Amino acid sequence: MASVRNYALIYVALVLLATGKFVFFHFDFFTYTMAVGGTLVLAAIKVGLIAGYFQHLKYEPRSVTYTMAVAAFMVVLLTLAAGYSIQ
After folding, report:
1. Buried b vs exposed e over 8-45: b needs ≥16 C-beta within 10 Å?
2. Where along the chain do its domains lie?
3. CA–CA distance from 82 to each of 51, 65, 86 (Å)?
4. Rounded distance, CA 82 to CA 87, Å?
5. Distance (Å, rounded) from C-alpha 18 to C-alpha 13?
6. pLDDT at 1
7. S-S: 58 plus which of 35, 41, 52, 86, CB 3.0-4.6 Å?
8. By C-alpha distance, which of 41, 49, 45, 39 is closest to 19?
9. pLDDT (tens digit, 0 to 9) for every residue of the chain, 87 residues total?
10. pTM over 0.90
């Protein structure tokens, strides 16, 4: 089980990652494409931290983690298929 210190550090990391989105979109150094790409990378890192620690997937058997990864992949495929069918 993770300690309160670990949860606090993860919380600080999540706040810093959320601040990154603001930085990407509010400074003229980044183009729109770079900002969207950077935001997606930061979001993937945040999802990993939240799922791993706050939803305790880090301490589950690997089979549960693989099942969650397959489910997330299927959601992405469904989203892409829905976006393709709309066009």
Report:
1. eebeeebeebeebeeebeeeeebeeeebeebbeebeee
2. 1-55, 62-87
3. 25, 26, 6
4. 9
5. 9
6. 56
7. 52
8. 39
9. 568 888 899 899 999 999 988 888 888 888 889 889 999 999 999 988 888 888 777 778 888 888 988 998 999 999 999 988 876
10. no
Amino acid at 3: S
- Cα–chain center distance at 14: 10
Between helix 4-26 and helix 32-49 the angle, nearest 10°, is 170
CA distance 59 to 50: 13
Structure-block tokens of residue 9: 């550090």
CA angle 7, 10, 11 (to 5 degrees): 85
